[in-house]
Hints:
The structure is a homodimer.
Chain A: H1 3-17, H2 25-32, H3 36-42, H4 46-67, H5 73-95, H6 102-110, H7 115-141, H8 151-171, H9 177-190
Helix pairs in contact in A: 1-2, 1-4, 4-5, 4-7, 5-7, 5-9, 6-7, 7-8, 8-9
Amino acid sequence: METRDRIVRSAAKLFLTRSYQSVGVVDLCAVADVRKGSFYHFFPSKAALAKAVVDLHAAELDRQLTAAGDDDPGARLYAVVDAVTVIQTGFEKRFGAVVGCPFGNLAAELSTTDAELREHVAGVFTRWEGTLAQACRHAAEHGVLRDGVDPDRLAHMILAQVQGLILLAKVTAAPAAEITAGLRTLLAATVREEA
Amino acid sequence: METRDRIVRSAAKLFLTRSYQSVGVVDLCAVADVRKGSFYHFFPSKAALAKAVVDLHAAELDRQLTAAGDDDPGARLYAVVDAVTVIQTGFEKRFGAVVGCPFGNLAAELSTTDAELREHVAGVFTRWEGTLAQACRHAAEHGVLRDGVDPDRLAHMILAQVQGLILLAKVTAAPAAEITAGLRTLLAATVREEA
């Protein structure tokens, strides 16, 4: 693996299993097996590395959302549940517990202390909500949403539900399966059964 | 104000407007205007202080949930929206932005690094979900929930939505009013209109 890639993947793991602030450049260099000089060659700061970590996770999310894609309007909404499930059960298997959403974790920890990182993470959420809104509008056009459910509000509600469910599973040490069940409950309340 | 109380309130403010890890005991002593010796007299560690901060916020949440209480089954659910709105618009006025949920922030930042604090915060969420579940069951018994909506699942869904909406508002620098609007959208999808 290339040095830069090794640093980013080590950071992704450490930020997820610990937190951004609790991991220092010394820890990162030790886990990635690189020297400090090499680290700073690729990343002028830990914040610059955090951006690369966000981009790594964002690329994985895009891959999962595309893989779970489907032309059927109802199925496209449930595909979002599948994408989140694959990612969260993957973390659960790797780390032995739900460790949070990579974006949500950084959003909660850094929004108040690093305006640039906040905007970078906000960009991921905005794009994700845009993708969701497309699926919701597609569902609305095909009469798949329950009466009175606005597609753009539903997109925001699904994204918030994903974040809230992951956070609750993390803090209560619940299994990732609870995230999947919770998302299905929201869709059952907003998408027609026959969909 | 008593010294202990001054330390807890200063910590509550600093943890909310920055983060737990980014605030040191030295900062806390400076803002609370106490000496280190006095600090450690009341709190053996920053983690012990964090527990007291959680308890302070939990008491305020209880107060708001009780104040917003109502006998009408539908109104009792909407009262949860009012309680969250009062707290979040309060923070927005004080700090100039949505800074997150005091419990959600600590849950996201510390669940992976401090098992004892994780359990303490989880306790608040479990109690909060219990209160919500009571209101949801009361609503179900009075036929106020839409067909197929399970009261216990709805309680979990509302709590997750609260957390997710606050997190999204924080990271996208959106106004607290978006949290209120989002919660009303969820209730509109799950509670009968005539309620």
